[in-house]
Specification:
Helix content: 25-40%
Distance between the termini: 39 Å
Number of helices: 4
Number of strands: 7
Shape: globular
Radius of gyration: 17 Å
CATH superfamily of the largest domain: SP0830-like domains
Number of domains: 2
CATH topology of the largest domain: Alpha-Beta Plaits
C-alpha cells in the first residue's frame, strides 16, 4: 500500500459542509486504510493501492455520492510530500520575517512557460515547480498577509 495525502478543495465553505468523521467513514467504507483527517481542513492521510489518477477519480465520485456536491481532490504520495519538505522551498526566506507561506498544489503539470510576477515586499513567488507554486505573503500595514496573493496568480 502507498501512503497518500488528499487535499479537498473548497469544503466547509458556505453550503459545502462536510464533517470529518463522515468523510473518514466514507473513505474507510471505500476500502482506504489508515484514514486520518485533519481538523475541518479537508486534508486526509490514508493508504491505498492503485494509481493516483484512479484513486483521485474514485474519491471524487464517492464524495459526490455521499455528500451531494462536487469536490476537487489533489493527491500527493507520502514520498512526494517528503521530497517537497526535503527541498526546503522556503529555506531562502528570512526566518524572522513576518510572513505566511503558501503552497499551491495542482493535479496536472504547470505549463513550462508559466511566468508569475512577485510584488516585492508584499507577495513573493518563491518557486514554481512542476505541480506546485510556493508563495510568501508578507504582513502589510493593515495587518493582512494574503491580500495580494490572488493578484500575483493572474
Amino acid at each position: 500500500m502507498t501512503l497518500y495525502a488528499a487535499f479537498l478543495r473548497g469544503i466547509n465553505l458556505g453550503k459545502r459542509q462536510m464533517k470529518m468523521a463522515e468523510l473518514k467513514a466514507c473513505l474507510e467504507g471505500a476500502g482506504y486504510a489508515a484514514v486520518k483527517t485533519v481538523l475541518a481542513s479537508g486534508n486526509v492521510r490514508f493508504e491505498a493501492e492503485g494509481s493516483p489518477e484512479t484513486i483521485r477519480k474514485d474519491m471524487e465520485q464517492r464524495i459526490r455520492e455521499a455528500f451531494g456536491f462536487e469536490v476537487g481532490v489533489v493527491l500527493r504520495t507520502g514520498e512526494e510530500l517528503q521530497e517537497i519538505k526535503d527541498s526546503d522551498p522556503f529555506g531562502g526566506l528570512d526566518p524572522k520575517a513576518d510572513l505566511t507561506r503558501h503552497v499551491l498544489l495542482f493535479d496536472e503539470p504547470l505549463p513550462e512557460d508559466v511566468a508569475l510576477e512577485s510584488l516585492p515586499g508584499d507577495t513573493e513567488i518563491v518557486r514554481i515547480d512542476r505541480r506546485e507554486i510556493y508563495i510568501a505573503a508578507y504582513r502589510q500595514p493593515n495587518g493582512r498577509y494574503t491580500e495580494h496573493v490572488e493578484a500575483v496568480l493572474k
